[in-house]
Fold:
Amino acid sequence: MPQDSPIAWFETLGIADVPQVGGKNASLGEMIRTLSAQGVRIPDGFATTAAAYRAYLAANGIEPAMRDRLAALKQGRGVTLQETGEAIRRLFLEGEFPPDLAQAIRAAYRELARRRATETPAVAVRSSATAEDLPTASFAGQQETFLNVRGEAALLDACRRCYASLFTDRAISYREAQGVDHLAVALSVGVQVMVRSDLAGSGVIFTIDTETGFPDVVVISAAWGLGETVVQGTVDPDKILVFKPLLDDPRRVPIIEKTRGGKERKLVYATGGSARTALEATTRRERESFVLQDAEALQLARWAVVVERHYGRPMDLEWAKDGETGELFIAPARPETGQAGRAGAGTVRSYRLKDRRARPLLTGAAVGDAIATGEACVIRSADEIERFRDGAILVTEATDPDWVPVMRRAAGIVTDHGGPTSHAAIVSRELGVPAVVGTQRATALLRDGQPITLSCAEGEEGHVYDGKLDFAVAEIDLKDLPRTRTAMMLNLANPATALRWWRLPSAGVGLARMEFIINNHIRIHPMALVHFDRLQDADAKRRIEAMTRGYPDRAEYFVDRLARGIGKLAAPFHPNPVIVRLSDFKTNEYAHLIGGAEFEPAEENPMLGLRGASRYYSDRYRDGFALECRAIRRAREEIGLTNVVVMVPFCRTPAEADRVLAEMAKHGLERGREGLQVYVMCEIPSNVILAEEFAARFDGFSIGSNDLTQLVLGVDRDSAELAPLFDERDAAVKRMIADVIHRAHAAGVKVGICGEAPSNHPDFAEFLVEQGIDSISLNPDSFVGTLRRVAETEARLDQARGEGRSERDQARSGATAPGQREARAT
Structure:
């Protein structure tokens, strides 16, 4: 495009035009010009150029005064950041557009009106600085955006205010921190047709998981109304996670997470008065509904992947839905700056609270994965920002780019409102400051000066604890890891933390504990959902009705949340196997679920009672087991994660195995159908003694060393008195394990181990390798160390076998030599 042109239409722009129209507008032009043919829909519009900005400066004589003000601030000549910013903005706001520039903007607006076949189209007026959206700096929210602008006079006024916003306090501070020369930056104004998302919804998309750097998901945030509430973090939006590798399969709906946000308010067009937009409360139906249908979320995800492939890097996009036409649109796109640069990191830092019994005061969305301690500094508005104390934990109503100067000095951040995809959260990640956003009541509950602990190390849900709790930090070195013949797998339970471990070179998941999902993410006894009318507990009924509101039926609540929980455990390791153990609560544990007490018997010894396989065909639980089967089938066949393997726990006899397999088949989980494999836990002596009969019914064994040790030695594993006797390395236990490995292999069936012993005892892991076990599943924090020891053991065994073969060859050679000599002589 000509360097001195004041106006450029988006369809004429490309990414090479950043110096003329800034990163945001160049990106819009690039997408319209190159991606529209691939179906990506972007609203039409035009941009003023850097030449227009410099013409405005020259016409109003702004640059000399601006230079003096900035120099005084930098040299500390008695002026504050606020005074400097206000003075420079006033220079812009008191200026006038040169007549030729004003006429060019009016003419472009009239052409846009002609294209839209309307006299005064509503437009969004956005700032796009020429230093904006660099690959390592987001410049998130540093300049202003004006929505629902109508008419030529209002457009010129919005453009003037965009120019002035190049020197907001936060923009000056941010450029200083990034080392960007203020006077080298120009500002382009993007003028884009408004999408009537005030009548529908809008939000933000990332093409990478912003907390873990996992590259195979698209993260979508969605709220009702105009998108500024999501961008600014003033509402708690819906969150949808889509698994990219399965997006091209039309048979699949690869949504691995759907979390409904509060969405208490929405931004809409204002009617009457001078305000262009207004905040209003959402209806109960809006709060209880998802903004996007599944098909719409998949469409946005596909477009996001198209954009990502075009730019060759993870992207941060905005989207909107037009409530009049039902059409979806992609708006600004910029490089993701928080995780993309760390995607190839050679180490993983793992944080862990030492006191697992602590109960959080507050919960919200975790930003980052660290733990921080400090005193709470409660600041409710930017007017009080000067009293922030370095090293404190900032507690405020909403994270906002205005707070960048203090965010940089904070140990952590806690907010009442906001979601993980707001601009403020992006900046928090970029600064490496952990945050818990959207707690609803942090400013009301926490006292100024109160010692607190902020934890983002427990999954997507961040926690705030009273007091300064002890925590541990471990550096996991992923560089130069050896390969092993033994498949090294992981033990996982919490879907919220599964994405964190995608960088580990694991062969999959050897144990995914379904009961954790039920206990923490569902919390309701499945029989209380199926037989809600039989429930007598009035309080439990009220809680169930509240938790399942918005679902077509109560059983769907269980199936949907369990299926997506399994999906989130399986996705980071796809296509490697993820072995999901069917629920293995004991009756006393099931009874603690909401509504569970009325459906569970009181047992003297639940450890040996109605647990594992015996529940699945029992009339007490058969209907609940049907929901488990529906969830697994949905994870495999609808979401598409066919790497999910089912494992049956505590199966006492081959006859019981037949009954469980028949019950599964009745619900569509037939062994071998759609490639389904079914494993059995080897944790009862009968599983070893009758190994061949179990091998005929299952595709593999997984040794549960805790229960097997308990039942071989007759030791209650929870008894403090007998604790010294409980040892997986006991000779009797090791003999049972060696026996089942050899007999399983003779039957042509794989065998692994998913107990705690290999993680806790390196010598036990060596024993397993010596016996030829196929796989070892470990806790993530012990994975790398055990992998190295397994590799050393395999190398030692190879050397010993090599030496043994050499000796046998020599002996064989010596024994046959005389015979050979005799044969030659004859």
The longest strand covers residues 217-224.
